[in-house]
Amino acid sequence: MAKFEISRRKFLTGASLGASGIMLSGCDAFDSQLSIGSGLRSFLENANGLTYRAQRLLAGRDTLAPEFTEADIRQPQRPNGVTAPDDDIYKGLLANNFADWRLEVTGLVEKPLSLSREQLQNMPSRTQITRHDCVEGWSCIAKWTGTPLSLVLDQAVVKPQARYVMFHCLDTIDRSLSGDIKYYGTIDLIDARHPQTILAYGLNGKPLPVENGAPLRVRVERQLGYKMPKYLYKIELVDGFATVGGGRGGYWEDNGYDWYGGI
Amino acid sequence: MESVARSQSAGPGASASNDTTLIYRQSRWTRLTHWLWAISLFFMLLSGLQIFNARPQLYIGKQSGFDYNNTILAIGAENTNAGLRGYTEIFGHRFDTTGVLGWSGPAGQETSRAFPSWATIPSYYDLGTARVIHFFFAWILTTTLIVWLVASTVNGHLRRDLAPRLDDLKRLPQDIIDHAKLKFHHTREYNTLQKMAYGGVLFVLLPLMIITGLAMSPSMNSVLPFLNDLLGGRQTARTIHFTVMVLLVAFFVVHILMILAAGPINELRSIITGWYRTDPPAQDDKPVERSA
User: Fold this and answer.
1) CA gap B228, B235 in Å, rounded
2) Which residues pair with A175 in a beta bridge?
3) CB contact under 8 A, B266 and A4
4) Residues of B numbered 222-251 whose beta carbons fall under 8 angstroms of chain A's beta carbons: which are they?
């Protein structure tokens, strides 16, 4: 019996040794293996593809994100990222209350479009009270009004080889050696044609404010906030995004976020 | 399927009390899944703390209060007369946690971060990479749980070792006393506290972790819209996710302490090879007549 008993002193010594081992183990040992493009990271990123396929299988094309009531709107929509673009083109458009702003629809379409704000607002609209989930972890509920993206795509007539919608934005999010980087992002055509995917020009019953993306931003309600670009001016239908930016499909994706933001 | 090996631990002439018995206690499924969980939970914890650092606040409800207050926990740094200090605020009570939470790092190079760099992967701030690691091991963890559940149903581990019995309840008070005295019985069966701890982790904490994790996914919200209603909203789900993490860490600490106290070599052998040395039969285990 004595064989299995240990003294309190031994126990405490062992316990503190174990605890300090745990403290020391964290955790810069993995840092060098985790940069974009490294073998280990690329292997781990396979799980993102699995998540994307699993969630597409479960959610299908048309399951709706939860919608809320007016009573759930308890605060202004929290702005994040760029909230006041410092770009001359943007400031010029803003000074004229976006009268000269156009939404270009280009790329793999039969009929390229150039739509004014009035033209967009004259199309059928959808209003939805939804929860905005930021990748950082916070949520905010607001009422969004806009033109369903599917209507715009139908008007432009998407070519069969198109696979993604690329959003081009007016705001400079970053500066690199090769110049200013404007925000951009991509979604697939399933999300682009989702009934809740709208090009929003209204927020909580008022025109979309600058900090939330005026004159036009995207709402992709089954994904996280970084998939919903603000300050939109061009929609380009593409069959891939390998040659744009860092080749990962968006500004944040090029900086390490998953292309699929459904989780 | 019980394998028992008896060995004389000492040479000829050793007394019967030196008899030791090796039994095959942990099946290969139990051992394999145990270590897969250990690895997954290690990486999920450290990447999870990195993810938390992106928004080191916890809220109750559907959304995060910016114009109203539904924050129950906040970790941050603040300017004081004594320079920058880290603080942790729980239910309105503020504690100075400089050096660990809120403001930490090598002397002179402290930075404002909720959890310190030794507790996160990567050690520097990198939300995107932490998410890659977190979701990779989320798949491993969940798959392992399902494999374990199936294997343990088939091989009888659940029924034989984990299912609670009436006897467990009767033994509970003595069990608590024995644990408090660090007095352990090495038998084939789990004791009551072990059953509660392992059952609690496998049937309550891990499933709750997976459910609250899914409840934070906007895409899963479209598949299972009732989930957040049941949990009290997405931000409450996030708070539960964090709380379960704290409970799992507490389980881990107690688990390690118990192994150290109960005999780390024997305990480790059983979870690596499956073989476990049980207590020798007691000398005085003959029924004793007691007079009333």
Assistant:
1) 9
2) A180
3) yes
4) 222-223, 225, 228, 234-235, 238
* Residue-wise pLDDT tens digits, A155-175: 999 999 999 999 999 999 999
pLDDT recorded at residue A9: 60
Q: What is the DSSP string of chain A?
A: -GGG---HHHHHHHHHHHHHHHHHH-SSTTGGG-STT-HHHHHHHHHHHHHHHHHHHHHTTTPPPP---GGG--SPPPP-S-SS---HHHHHHHHTTTTT--EEEEESBSS-EEE-HHHHHHS--EEEEEEEE-TTS-EEEEEEEEEEHHHHHHHH-B-TT--EEEEEEEEEEEEETTEEEEEEEEEEHHHHTSTT-EEEEEETTEEPPGGGTTT-EEE-TTS-GGGS-SSEEEEEEES--TTSTTSSSBHHHHTT--S----
**From the candidates B60, B132, B142, B187, which should be mutated to test the interface with A, based on the most A CB atoms within 10 A?**
B132
> Which of B219, B227, B228, B279 is the best substitution to test chain A (most A C-beta atoms within 10 A)?
B219
Q: Distance from first CA to last CA of chain A, Å, rounded?
A: 53
Q: Which of residues 7-46 of B touch A (CB under 8 A)?
A: 17, 46
Q: What is the dihedral of CA B170, B176, B177, B181, to 10 degrees?
A: 150
Residue A139: left (phi > 0), alpha (psi -120 to 50), or beta? beta
Cα separation, B162 vs A215, in Å, equals 60
Q: State the pLDDT at residue A8.
A: 56
Residues B176-234: tens digit of each pLDDT: 999 999 888 898 899 999 999 999 999 999 999 999 999 999 999 999 999 999 999 99
At a CB cut-off of 8 Å and minimum separation 6, what does B243 contact?
none
User: Number of A:B CB contacts under 8 A?
Assistant: 182
Instruction: Give the pTM.
Output: 0.90
Please give the domain boundaries of chain A with CATH numbers for all domains. Answer: 65-254 (3.90.420.10)
Q: What is the mean pLDDT of residues A185-190?
A: 98
Mean pLDDT, rounded, for B36-42: 97
Asked whether the beta carbons of residue A138 and residue B57 sit closer than 8 angstroms, the reply is yes
Give A34's contacts in chain B (Cβ within 8 Å). Answer: 121-122, 126, 129, 132-133
Report DSSP letters for A150-213, one per residue.
HHHHHHH-B-TT--EEEEEEEEEEEEETTEEEEEEEEEEHHHHTSTT-EEEEEETTEEPPGGGT
**A137 vs chain B: nearest CA distance in angstroms?**
6
What dihedral do alpha carbons A109, A112, A118, A120 form, nearest 10°?
A: 0
Question: What residues does each domain of chain B span?
Answer: 57-114
> From CA B154, how far away is CA A127, in angstroms rounded?
52
